[in-house]
Predict the 3D structure of the following.
Amino acid sequence: MALKAGDVQVTVNVKDENREGYAVVFLTLDEGKDFMDLMASTATASPPEWSDLRHYEEVGPGAASTYTIQTNAGPLYGICFSKPPDHPIGNLGPIEVSQ
């Protein structure tokens, strides 16, 4: 998947209703970090210090939300979370973003 830099519309559609809440985080990583580093770091609910948070969105169980994020050149990554407890349930990326 590849995106052009600028505003991107994203829809999160949560079909699961087993948890109190869900969230999606989009971020970029510092040079030298990659998807494997991101997977290893998601044991906690906080984005790693070597990342740049681009967007955070919470969505309730069985709900959908559409929002716009601003993308810049470089790979974009996503992490899906559920709570309680705050727990990563999936990673995606890299999504290449070009000018």
Observations:
- DSSP finds one helix and seven strands in the chain.
- The chain has a mean pLDDT of 86.
- The chain has one domain: 2-98.
- The CA atoms of residues 15 and 27 lie 23 Å apart.
